[in-house]
């Protein structure tokens, strides 16, 4: 295929071996279902309630049985041919003779949910109907086993349990509608059961002996209503499992799939137990990250008194079989901690186990989390009695901490003196301490950097002993002189201009082709990119710095688009759950399980396979850049977009994201790793300031991006909407140039998120190469003419965009 043929001509060229389309193909959907089964987490299973014994009679309760939520909303949504709910899954199992169902109940819910959809509700934003007593009585006469399904939906632009303070902030109309709707359905916030759900649960508990719960949710929710509840012996966290998630959940409850997923977040007893909750809604204009590096299990396993607040620890998940993990040896070799272990399936069913290696660095002067995940490995499917040896390793340097205040060495990564300890197990709480320690007599600096993106208004941060330390504050950065900032409304939702081409004869066109600089000359090695860029007029370079009109089935716009210089218009598309094409195009794609579920597989190889399959769909539809993976940290259960993100732990997020990028870029589809960084709240997402220490930035919020940059070389990174310590992410030179390029040697290009509130030329100066979805050429041109930006600064970003385009097929 000729270079850029897909972008230039939008051919209908299927990628399947037999000339068939791969988009939304049976093979891809089967992979989606398989992944869904691999990431579901069994958190409770008393008396071997699950898997259901062959022939079990089952009553299905809850509108979630029908109202299946395949994934979250906004750019994380996907247009699909169909969605399979849990009832459909169980009907297949009934047809296969595994269970029998009391159909009247799901039929009742089916009718009710249909009516709610017809009245405008979307999946997950429906109300729990009161189940008639006579149906309960009939169901009780039929069986003593009930399965309750609870579902949840969230999306872009609003948080779970929103609260707007009286700070003069005006909501957009659609934000307001969504927040009001959510508040009216979820009286207690969607973390908790609604009153209707709670009443249904009580009714089921009162009437059935075996009550099983299936949670079709995007992440952290209340688990206290079932954790110690005797009447509920089994619970499956089935997540939002993509288009066949309902089938995958049925696979797991019937035992056709043995669950092997593990939690990637800590499940605390109440929402208030998460340290991030207190400040989450304090202001609409800023969030203080006072808990610092103590996010998720780093908080719950370290801070005195926090451990008992945990219902289910990070890394936890049950299986229908049992495993024994024997540590065969641990050592430090060539700067690496290496642990060898043997995992044996000691139960009666084939299954997979995840071996997790944690380290604990000495408290020293900086203070450290009690345990931090250093490496993990999922086994293959082990038959009963079968053993697999695994090797886990990470570098000694990975255990260093960032010393932002200079307690040991200012702005350096330091390994403090003392004993480093290690733990191996299948969740953070139960991991066993090894005899082996790594001992350091004196503190060592592993990397010396400078202070970047420091906080100005964050007054205090949490320490390992549960006290707070005061942080230095000041008035914040002083903005460089320049153009008066644009009114925000002129930055919202504009489409890129479609450039007119003057009337030309074929002769003139051919003449221009001979004389104009042409990017193809760079492809063919006739000139260097620098030589090519030097020949382009400044206006052409400025044109490259903004989003370009959609072509074909794209709806999130393109990059490039200077046909007179041989530069194609490369299309972009969302998103983390699959290629998102708008319904009116008539193209259905594969909806993969949500990112949280994928992370719960703890299986980077499987995620890589999905990245490749998804990348093929992107390519087949003539799109070049896939706006995924999204790797923000699950800082708070309240963030509306957690389902799109992987984990509370940067290593899991980084390894999962890197696998995704490797898979998709093997198809030469550019990844856009987002949202760089600290986009952990959706309310007022374009103007909320994330106030965070340099240490927490580097050890928690930037870490996943760092791993992905170093392991997978993504073509692009998307900066986030929010501010970080007073500076818009897209204008944040410290982050985009200082850390991303200076420290990590990132070779790709940076895009803004779509329609940021940043000033275009200031973004360019910071190293944010392109403004999406639309650039403001006239503003950059004016800034150039007034001397606020140089041609070199413009050319540098243009060159990075062209380098990215040159990497495409
Ligand atoms: C989202 C991004 C998305 C982009 C394009 C933005 O609103 O934050 O994640 O990729 O839109 O749809």
UniProtKB/TrEMBL annotation:
Domain Fibronectin type III-like: 353-428
Keyword Hydrolase carried by entry: yes
UniProt keyword list: Hydrolase
Family: Belongs to the glycosyl hydrolase 3 family.
Record's protein name: Beta-glucosidase
Source organism of this protein record: Fusicatenibacter saccharivorans
